[in-house]
Specification:
Elements: H1 4-14, H2 22-25, E1 33-37, E2 40-43, E3 48-51, H3 54-57, H4 66-76, H5 90-102, E4 107-113, H6 116-133, E5 141-145, H7 154-158, H8 163-166, E6 177-179, H9 195-214, E7 219-224, E8 228-229, E9 235-236, H10 241-251, E10 255-259, E11 283-286, E12 298-303, H11 304-308, H12 330-345, H13 348-364, E13 372-378, E14 381-386, H14 402-412, E15 415-416, E16 419-420, E17 423-426, H15 434-452
Parallel strand pairs: 3-15, 5-6, 5-7, 7-10, 10-11
Antiparallel strand pairs: 1-2, 2-3, 4-12, 8-9, 11-12, 13-14, 14-17, 16-17
Helix pairs in contact: 4-12, 5-12, 9-10, 13-15, 14-15
The structure holds pyridoxal-5'-phosphate.
Length: about 450
């Protein structure tokens, strides 16, 4: 076993970390996680931290879960990987059947890949090709939103809306119709039905309708993160927005693509965010929590209508020419099956409701802190936005790294977090106990208080 000093030295010598300014990284201490237990992470020198972001929004039932481990090991004793190109495998078939059963009615076909970005790329390519088969090849545009995040591949970035991530690559990205988001500051909670929230919804819907009408007959699809935009800052959509968007998609005869990569698997309090508004999209993307945060696995689900448009003679070249080497990986699919089985066995979604309510109530206490501008909550996901002056809506200067400093403070107090600029993200594992959740919230509160009073 390597000692911590060697691990840190090798990390700094050999690794390039994602979304990380490596010049800063090289001067800082590195936390190296070695083990996990439920909602806790344990580092190479034995420190325990509450996993405040469910390991990049993936983990569902906690780390090192005995039943998930057993399912993985049982599959490992059979086969680790075999291809879905030209052949099939048992866990991939069983999981596809199960996904069709648990997703909104009408989504009947499952196309696997490995991560959220690929699930989105597949959705975009499916929609694009669909219109060619339907004799409407001019439908090439995707309507997408400010602050949207759908991943880091070129297609996923093309429908994104976070300038700091995407502007560098502008000339590589394909053209779409980006709809500007109205102010969501203080439209804070998914259950909020205040006038302010209704006004936000109306403005946003007008913007979408204008985009549809200006580009009539050319829109391949509308893509969005349902209910809450994650990486854009945990921005909660007004209640009813998704439902009305689905109506628009039907009225303008275009496809609705929902990216449930973050919201799927219970995060919003239902299995899928779409269920809150009884929406069946034409395409649904899932990843992160699909294999319970254990292994990279993604799926793009679609309707019979879309799938049938790709059927034809071999020579017609209507085939969907897309696939990844590890598509339908049996280990990941076996874990995903057990993930869903645990939801069912433990009645997790109804068990989760008191935790969600407690989370939402306790988060309101954060408004007591003078530099908390906004607290946005949706299910067991939240963003606490820090402001230099919440009254005048003045953000902290970017270079002050206030969010990063709060995360460091929290780490020293036993919680692992990651901020989105100055929004502190809270996304605990779903099985977290109320008592561990309280500890997490106390740590975050004190950390914000400590950093912002300096
Ligand atoms: N879509 C959404 C809504 C996401 O939140 C993310 C990742 O955070 C992605 C897509 C991209 O997923 P991945 O990082 O697995 O490619």
């Amino acid at each position: 076993m390597l000692d911590k000093e060697t691990l840190v030295a090798w990390d700094k010598r050999y690794l390039w970390h994602p979304f990380t300014q490596m010049q800063d990284w090289l001067t800082e201490d590195v936390v190296i996680i070695e083990r996990g237990e439920g909602c806790y992470l344990i580092d190479a020198v034995g420190n325990r931290y509450i996993d405040g972001t469910a390991s990049m929004w993936t983990n569902v039932h906690g780390h090192n879960h005995p039943e998930l481990n057993t399912a993985l090991k049982a599959q490992l004793d059979k086969i680790a990987h075999t291809t879905l190109l030209g052949y099939s495998n048992v866990p991939a078939i069983r999981l596809a059947q199960k996904l069709v059963e648990i997703t909104p009615a009408g989504l009947n076909k499952v196309f696997y890949s490995d991560n959220g970005s690929t699930a989105v790329e597949i959705a975009l390519k499916m929609a694009y090709q669909y219109w060619q088969h339907k004799g409407e090849p001019q439908r090439k545009l995707f309507i997408h939103f400010d602050n949207a995040y759908h991943g880091d591949t070129i297609g996923a970035m093309s429908v994104g809306g976070i300038d700091s991530f995407h502007t560098t690559f502008d000339s590589l990205l394909f053209k779409g119709v980006r709809v500007s988001a109205p102010e969501t500051y203080r439209s804070t909670c998914y259950t909020d039905t205040s006038d302010n929230n209704t006004a936000v919804k109306t403005r946003w819907l007008h913007a979408v309708e204008a985009a549809l009408s200006e580009n009539a007959g050319q829109v391949a699809g509308i893509i969005l993160e349902p209910l809450i935009q994650g990486a854009g800052g945990m921005l909660v959509a007004p209640k009813g927005f998704l439902k009305e968007l689905a109506v628009f998609a039907k009225r303008w005869e275009t496809l609705l693509i929902v990216d449930e990569v973050m919201t799927g698997f219970g995060r919003t309090g239902k299995m899928w965010a779409c269920e809150h508004e009884n929406v069946t999209p034409d395409i649904l993307c899932t990843a992160k929590g699909l294999a319970a945060g254990y292994l990279p696995l993604a799926a793009t689900l679609t309707t019979d209508n879309l799938y049938n448009a790709f059927l034809g003679k071999y020579r017609d070249l209507k085939t969907f020419f897309h696939g990844h080497t590890f598509t339908g990986n049996p280990l990941a699919c076996a874990v995903a099956l057990e993930n869903i089985a645990i939801f069912e066995r433990e009645n997790l979604l109804s068990e989760l409701q008191p935790t969600i309510e407690h989370f939402r109530n306790r988060l309101q206490e954060f408004y007591r802190l003078p530099h908390v501008g906004d607290v946005r909550v949706c299910g067991l996901a939240a963003g606490v936005e820090l402001m230099e002056n919440p009254g005048s809506h003045t953000p902290y200067p970017f270079e002050e790294k206030v969010g990063i400093r709060v995360c460091k403070e929290a780490l020293a107090r036993g919680a692992m977090l990651r901020s989105l600029v100055n929004t502190i993200v809270l996304m605990p594992t779903l099985q977290i106990t109320i008592s561990a959740l309280d500890t997490l919230l106390d740590i975050v509160y004190t950390s914000i208080e400590t950093v912002t009073k300096k």
